[in-house]
Model the fold of this input.
Amino acid sequence: MKFEVTPGMRRLGGTVLGMEAIVVGLLTPVAISGGVATGLAVTVGIGLAVLCVVIAGLLKWPFGYVAGTVVQVLAICTGFLVPTMFFLGAIFAALWITAIIVARRVEGATSR
Done:
């Protein structure tokens, strides 16, 4: 089965990753105020935010979606620093999956 990247997938996936970059970037001050070491909070929060932006640019290729899925798992794992991120990471993972499915379904229907 070949994974074909469609413009709608790129658009919706990029939107999810862009919004996620903002949320995980804001994880940094919350983690610091919650008692997490500053270096760890900055590395995880800002690093994951930058990773989201970089992967949003890689959504032209199928491996970008694999990398985006890995980012969703990492976002859920940030819940070990800030417990609320378990919930927010799960929401973004659901949005990620929905973006891929909906875009493929809509573009499949319009191409008929």
